[in-house]
Design a protein that fits this description.
The complex is a heterodimer. Chain A is mainly alpha-helical. Helices cover 67% and strands 0% of the residues of chain A. Classes of the chains: A mainly alpha, B alpha/beta.
């Protein structure tokens, strides 16, 4: 059995780096560690700017830091990509550009390969 | 993070003792997600169980790993044995599988001769996970009680035993 990823791995990276929550808060430019604590406990999803700040602090892509959220978004987008490809083929079978179709199918298949439901 | 399957099994390993709870969360044998020792505000089994329930809710583990107190190599106090049984019941109620490993099995994972001391096992674990190196206590002398940080390593050793021996 496999599990979904955790919403984020901020605490993991912070502890590996040896930072306290207050120290990370300082690096993020916020007042104290309470915000970092809320982010680590999955009670809130940081805004994009904060997500990028975490990426800089931990030298790790935001898609890895927020792996669980990324996983869900990837699955949703890939499902819609396949649906869009089908819709375009039905509506304009001769008009659709080959590159566009290829890209939509690539987007659709990438998440499907890694989805735990398909294992 | 280290190279692992896309969605490895997430293990929450617990080392309950009378005064607290050592814990480790791993996603695969090479990925240590969280670790530490939690101390309840009151030294009651009910407080320990509340902590465990919160941790299960937070980490959503696939498996909970604990010590097998029924084995002759286990030297747990009666209260901790009862606590471990209650944790197993709690996990069952919320649909989380549990696995138990004896101290002998853990020693056999780290050494063929099973003669390693707890400190030697902890040192080996600190070698696998460098982030734990700063938590490694000093070598215990005869007059010393066990350093609370050792419970982190006990928990990690339980998790590693799970990945090695698999589900029982």
């Amino acid at each position: 059995m496999t599990s979904q990823k955790l919403p984020n791995y901020l605490k993991t990276h912070r502890k590996r780096a040896g930072f306290s929550q207050d120290e990370v808060a300082f690096l993020l430019g916020v007042q104290n560690g309470a915000k970092v604590c809320r982010d680590e406990r999955f009670t809130q999803i940081p805004i994009l700017r904060t997500a990028f700040a975490y990426e800089v602090v931990f030298n790790t892509p935001a898609s890895e830091l927020f792996a669980g959220i990324y996983q869900k978004v990837e699955l949703e987008v890939s499902t819609r990509a396949l649906r869009l490809a089908e819709q375009l083929l039905r509506a304009n079978p001769g008009d659709i550009k080959e590159e566009k179709l290829k890209l939509l199918r690539l987007i659709g298949l990438s998440a499907m390969r890694e989805s735990p439901e398909n294992e | 993070m280290n190279e692992q399957p896309a969605n490895p099994i997430r293990v929450l390993a617990l080392d309950p003792v009378t005064r607290g709870l050592g814990y480790a969360v791993l996603e695969g044998s090479k990925d240590l997600i969280d670790w530490g020792v939690k101390t309840p505000s009151r030294n009651h089994n009910s407080e320990h169980l509340d902590m465990v329930a919160r941790m299960i809710g937070w980490y959503q583990p696939d498996v909970l790993v604990l010590e097998d107190c029924t084995d002759i190599s286990s030297r747990r106090r009666l209260r901790v044995q009862e606590l471990i049984q209650k944790i197993i019941s709690l996990a069952s109620k919320v649909g989380v599988k549990t696995n138990c490993f004896s101290p002998r099995e853990i020693r056999s994972y780290f050494s063929e001769t099973e003669t390693l001391t707890k400190y030697e096992i902890a040192s080996a674990i600190a070698g696998i996970f460098p982030e734990l190196a700063s938590r490694l206590p000093r070598v215990r002398r005869l007059w010393m009680s066990e350093d609370y940080r050792m419970h982190i390593f006990d928990a990690v050793s339980l998790a590693l035993a799970f990945y090695h021996f698999g589900e029982g």
